[in-house]
Amino acid sequence: xxxxxxxxxxxxxxxxxxxxxxxxxxxxxxxxxxxxxxxxxxxxxxxxxxxxxxxxxxxxxxxxxxxxxxxxxxxxxxxxxxxxxxxxxxxxxxxxxxxxxxxxxxxxxxxxxxxxxxxxxxxxxxxxxxxxxxxxxxxxxxxxxxxxxxxxxxxxxxxxxxxxxxxxxxxxxxxxxxxxxxxxxxxxxxxxxxxxxxxxxxxxxxxxxxxxxxxxxxxxxxxxxxxxxxxxxxxxxxxxxxxxxxxxxxxxxxxxxxxxxxxxxxxxxxxxxxxxxxxxxxxxxxxxxxxxxxxxxxxxxxxxxxxxxxxx
Length: 312
Fold this sequence. Notes:
Oligomer: single chain
Number of helices: 11
Strand content: 5-15%
Low-confidence stretches: none
Radius of gyration: 23 Å
Shape: globular
Helix content: 55-70%
Strand order of the largest sheet: 1-2-4-3
Number of strands: 4
Structural class: alpha+beta
Order of helices and strands: HHHEHEEEHHHHHHH
């Protein structure tokens, strides 16, 4: 019953959100020159996402139901252990298992147009002590003109991913790409990834504790109109309780997101400063301005709006 309920809820949610996704992609993004997604790519992405939801989501929901059902008074602890383990597991497998289902990742040195970047990036990584494994170019421009670069890998050799749109924007200005990577290496060098994980786990721990206090509260269910339809029915069904808690937690989550964004922006400034110490002060400034202009970002946002909405 739980899986059927989740499946039906997912279908209804998708039907409601689909027109907005289509409008965002093919009207708003298209209007501003960002959209590169074709109808075929959109449908393919939707099918892959649906398949992943079934293959990963259903087993996760089933396991979560068992955790909630069997945990007893220590529900909050088991719920935290399950949720945190799942989050870390998905973070580990996403770059190498899930992301390639949507995009093509090409080794940097296999493309004659980008092979010249290989040595400078390797030298920069060696300079800061970054355990560089492989460098990839992702075909982000197949869907959008937005640009980005990121690092991934928890243990051992790590990988660098450059968006092809970033390379195109910085065409003939390799020092700007190195400046952006200097910024990303700064996140690694200063331990921002681990600090972010620690903060997220702390937030999840607090949320799990609060959920443990409300999970079996029959008055909570009654206040939202959920009443057992028969004498033998569970008056506090687990998934419904989780959904109700999620709604109740939303205001708290908004406050926490304000704090998380503050920490994230602090880390961004620190990474900028790290790139500056590598000698890329002007190059980073030029690269950021180029990306802001190319992405049509607001360079002078209202400070209150920025404080709440912007993590960078």
